[in-house]
Amino acid sequence: MIKKLSCILLLVLSVISCYQPERNCSDFKTGEFLFTYEVNGVTKTGKFIRDKDYSVDYYDNKIDSASVRWLNDCEFVLKDLNNDIAIHYKILSTTKNSYTFEYKNAVKDTNKKLIVRTGTATKTK
Asked: Is the pTM of this model over 0.85?
């Protein structure tokens, strides 16, 4: 009985460990997207338009522009054109029209704690 239970448990763990979320990252390299973000406990919606070289963000009545450098199909760095801030993004999973990502500062600052956040972007065009 214990041997049979062990075999079943091993089989279940094997199947679970093989699961990989869907990542069709190339579908999201360019386009128009909506995303949500939080400021002081208030959830807001922003928009960005990304082509192969640039990303333009529209949020809180502001417009930010950044260059885009793809590291591979699922990772890229946005570098703000107005200052020297670079953010590293990694697409974790995709659906038909959205992707979940994590982001953090691209350059490590030993004086600051590394903060990794996640978000979701929905492709509108």
From this structure: no
